[in-house]
Design goal:
Blueprint: E1 10-13, E2 22-31, E3 37-44, E4 52-60, E5 68-73, E6 77-84, E7 88-97, E8 109-112, E9 118-120, E10 128-134, E11 140-145, E12 152-156, E13 164-170, E14 180-185
Antiparallel strand pairs: 1-2, 2-3, 3-6, 4-5, 4-7, 7-8, 9-10, 10-13, 11-12, 11-14
């Protein structure tokens, strides 16, 4: 089985016990109150089958290996909180009927939680490179500082059209004895 198309924003699957086709979508993201964690809102289309009485959202940090389950009742939208920045999560939904018969999993949706900046080793010692996940519909400023007080924007991304890792290099890094970096989400 081919596993996890990371650029896919929605997927469709037909479940057992009838035509319970479910399309799962990532609707929005947000920062939670706890430092280093975020939330994501997911929604799906309700199948046109009157025997469906509820849904389960499954997720985990490995493709098709779900360690968490959220019962949403008849709601076709839910918020998942406590997601760690920089971590990739995999989501799928099932439908069930009043007899407890659960459909197969929908196709999987992959989500990389933004808010993480990682330094990347390179071949050029004069160049500092970093990578970070971006969320569609947002753009990011890369800022640098020598003292953690005054920050200067040294680059920015365009508005992201997918949830993916982005790389940025600071060609002026060698001009400073010490330099700190941060991301600003817009």
């Amino acid at each position: 089985m081919a596993c996890c198309n990371k650029n896919r924003k929605s997927c469709t699957s037909k479940g057992q016990g009838g035509m319970w086709g479910i399309t799962l979508l990532i609707l929005s993201l947000g920062l939670a109150n706890t430092h280093g964690t975020q939330t994501v809102q997911l929604g799906w289309d309700a199948p046109q089958d009157p025997t469906v009485t509820g849904y389960f959202l499954y997720y985990g940090t490995a493709c098709r290996t779900y360690t968490n389950q959220i019962g949403t009742g008849t709601n076709t939208m839910t918020v998942v909180s406590g997601l760690q920045e920089g971590q990739t999560y995999y989501f799928a939904v099932t439908a069930y009927n009043s007899d407890g018969v659960e459909s197969d999993f929908s196709s999987e949706v992959t989500y990389i939680t933004p808010g993480f900046l990682s330094m990347v080793g390179g071949t050029n010692s004069n160049l500092v490179s970093m990578k970070f996940p971006v969320a569609w519909g947002h753009w990011y400023e890369i800022q640098a500082s020598e003292d953690l007080q005054a920050w200067t924007t040294i680059g920015q991304t365009g508005v992201a059209t997918s949830n993916a890792w982005t790389q940025f290099s600071d060609p002026q890094a060698s001009q400073f004895p010490m330099r700190f970096y941060r991301l600003v989400l817009h």
